[in-house]
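B., you asked whether I could sanity-check this one before it goes into the benchmark set. Here's the sequence:
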Amino acid sequence: MQSLINLFVEQIKETTWVQWLAVALGVAEVLLARVNNIWLYPAGILGTALSILLLMEAQLFAESLLNVYYIVMSVYGWVYWVKKRDQPPVKVTWSTRTEWIISLSISLGGWAVLYFLLRYFTPSNVPLWDAFVSSTAWAGMWLLARRKIENWIFLNISNLFAVPLLFYKKLPMFAVLTIFLFIVACFGYYDWRRRAQGPKLKAESL
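And here's what the prediction gave me:
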């Protein structure tokens, strides 16, 4: 325990202002998402762009590519949410059967593809674990972009597995941040449930 505390303190001492800004914007994104505020997207895009630069400097190329995906999905979500100026924003709703199938396909299919790439084209020593964390986050981001309540479920599955992975990789500061995001996401799930308009949608047929 003492060694973990010492490692955490050292991590904070070595943190640059760019890293702190990226972390702060990441926290802001989740808090804004919890209250269903559209400003979550510009905060997330800027924070993710800074993260890409930091990850590239650390030669974490797979994670950098994942963050590029986050930016693309954030732009998509921003446009999808706003739609047209003469139309109301997209409302928070439950996922349909088709959206569940797509989300699970992203998680499982992405897991397989990422594992293959990490296993055979990178020096990663945790390809299976790393791939699962990323693929479930992909599904969560897709659902978040579509304003679906279940996005919090997929994102928190990713967070749950990311915490021990980050500790294993000796990144305690980011592990603690992920624990915070996990807690916020739990509240976000219940907030979005209250915001959902009307009864839960029935699963649509394929």
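One thing to flag: DSSP finds eight helices and no strands in the chain. Otherwise nothing jumped out at me.
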